[in-house]
Structures are given as structure tokens and as C-alpha cells.
């Protein structure tokens, strides 16, 4: 039972990273300028690397002939357990940077706790990931500040992005049965306990950016239970096309 719960926990972390990586990869050759194109591509590659580490571990826990590739390319959308914010479309440059800020700030806190996990493999993944995430956070926060404290148009766009994406942030801190069990065993992280510090960091960034913090009116969730928006299916159809078209193809 413990291994089954650990598998679900690791798989969910892998799904978050994989779907986020695929979303950011869609900015390749479309970013506002070359340097930013390279930056977003590099962040995407970091997240693909993180996803691979989680999914390789999940495949090991699952056993049999399961591989990381199988978990990434041969599950349908209802079998993915990523948070909804990860699958949200890129939108404009402000939308993407606000989404990244919310996730990067969360992972800044989450990974700092996960390195203390009793599970040595999870702790090792977190140690590598938090070093990369420090750059990701610096990148997204600096852009939100730059856009918020920029022109009237850029301020308006980033404020709209904040207002539209805020409803997805509540799910970051939800604790389901898997989270509760892993946290009680000191393998996983108490996500709920991270919220005050996350809110404090976000508030500091938005204040510097001369932006307004949205109110907690309605929060949506369901990703961990496999209940997704229509956007995930479209994302997976692109990501999984080759494996679906040519099953078990080998190079």
C-alpha cells in the first residue's frame, strides 16, 4: 500500500513537471525576442529533465515493463494527475509569466521541504530541481515586475493575467489522501502549510510591480483526480502524436 501511495505521489509530481514543460516548449521560436526564446526553451528543458527523473522513479515503483516513456506517452488525459494551472494555455507573454510566477514561487517553497524527505530518491530530485528553480523564479518574478511597472498597456495585460489565473492557485495547496499519507510519513510535503509564505512572496512581487492582488473568490480544482480542462487533451494530442501513430517504434 505504501509503495502504491508513493507511486501516485511521485507520478503527480512528474505530471506537473511534464505538462508545464510541454506548455513552455510551445513558446519556442514564438517569444518576443531571441534571448527570451532561449530562456523559455531552457526552462522548458529543465522541467522536462525534472519530469523524467520523477517518471523514471514512478516507473520503478510501478514495476513490470513500465517505463518513463510509457507513463508520458501512453496514458490518456483522465489518467494524468497534474494541477490545472500547468495545462492552462500560454496566452500572451504576460499570461505565461504570471503562470510561471505562481508555479515557481510554489516550487521554491515545496522543493526546499522535499529535500528533507525520508525518501532519498525524492530528496535527490528535489536538490537538483531547486537549484534550477531559483533561476526560474528570478526570471518570472523579474518579468512580472518589469511588465507591471512598465507601460499602461503592459500593466493592464499582466493585471488581467493575474485576475484570470488566480482561481487556479488554490489547488496548489490542496491536500488529498495521497498528500496526507506521504506528509505523515515525512516523505512528502505539507502543501497547505506553504500557503502563507507563498502569499507573502507573491504580495511582495506584485507590490513592487504596482499590481493588485486578486481576491480569493472562487477557486477551481480537480486535476489530481483526473478532472481536467479541455486544454490538456489538445496538449497531449501534440505531445503523444508520434508514439500513438507508431506504437513501440524504435530508433
Architecture, according to CATH? Answer: Up-down Bundle
Biggest sheet record = none
What name goes with the CATH superfamily?
Ferritin, core subunit, four-helix bundle
Please tell me the total number of domains.
1
Strand residue content: under 5%
Distance between the first and last residues' Cα: 37 Å
Structural class: mainly alpha
Mean model confidence by pLDDT = 95
Number of strands: 0
SSE topology string = HHHHHHHHHHH
Here the CATH topology equals Ferritin
Shape: globular
CATH class term:
Mainly Alpha
Rg from C-alpha positions? 18 Å
SSE layout and pairings?
Elements: H1 2-25, H2 34-62, H3 68-73, H4 84-87, H5 93-114, H6 120-148, H7 152-165, H8 177-184, H9 195-208, H10 230-239, H11 241-245
Helix pairs in contact: 1-2, 1-8, 2-6, 5-6, 5-7, 5-9
Structure overview:
This protein has 251 residues and is mainly α. The protein has a single domain, classed as Ferritin, core subunit, four-helix bundle (Ferritin, Up-down Bundle). It has helices at residues 2-25, 34-62, 68-73, 84-87, 93-114, 120-148, 152-165, 177-184, 195-208, 230-239, 241-245. Helix 5 runs antiparallel to helix 6. The longest helix has 29 residues, at 34-62. The radius of gyration is 18 Å and the shape is globular.
Amino acid at each position: 500500500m505504501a509503495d502504491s501511495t508513493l507511486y501516485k505521489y511521485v507520478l503527480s509530481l512528474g505530471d506537473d513537471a511534464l505538462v508545464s514543460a510541454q506548455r513552455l516548449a510551445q513558446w519556442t521560436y514564438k517569444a518576443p525576442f531571441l534571448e527570451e526564446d532561449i530562456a523559455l526553451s531552457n526552462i522548458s528543458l529543465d522541467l522536462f529533465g525534472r519530469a523524467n527523473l520523477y517518471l523514471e522513479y514512478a516507473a520503478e515503483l510501478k514495476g513490470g515493463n513500465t517505463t518513463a516513456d510509457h507513463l508520458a506517452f501512453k496514458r490518456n488525459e483522465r489518467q494524468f494527475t497534474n494541477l490545472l494551472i500547468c495545462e492552462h494555455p500560454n496566452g500572451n507573454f504576460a499570461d505565461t509569466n504570471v503562470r510561471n510566477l505562481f508555479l515557481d514561487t510554489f516550487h521554491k517553497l515545496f522543493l526546499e521541504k522535499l529535500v528533507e524527505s525520508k525518501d532519498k530518491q525524492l530528496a535527490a530530485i528535489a536538490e537538483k530541481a531547486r537549484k534550477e528553480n531559483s533561476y526560474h523564479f528570478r526570471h518570472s518574478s523579474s518579468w512580472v515586475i518589469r511588465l507591471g511597472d512598465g507601460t499602461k498597456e503592459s500593466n493592464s495585460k499582466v493585471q488581467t493575467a493575474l485576475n484570470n489565473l488566480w482561481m487556479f492557485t488554490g489547488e496548489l495547496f490542496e491536500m488529498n489522501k495521497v498528500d496526507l499519507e506521504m506528509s505523515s510519513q515525512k516523505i512528502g510535503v505539507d502543501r497547505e502549510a506553504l500557503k502563507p509564505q507563498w502569499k507573502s512572496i507573491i504580495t511582495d512581487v506584485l507590490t513592487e510591480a504596482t499590481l493588485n492582488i486578486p481576491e480569493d473568490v472562487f477557486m477551481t480544482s480537480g486535476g489530481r483526480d483526473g478532472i481536467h480542462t479541455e486544454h490538456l487533451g489538445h496538449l497531449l494530442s501534440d505531445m503523444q502524436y508520434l508514439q500513438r501513430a507508431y506504437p513501440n517504434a524504435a530508433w
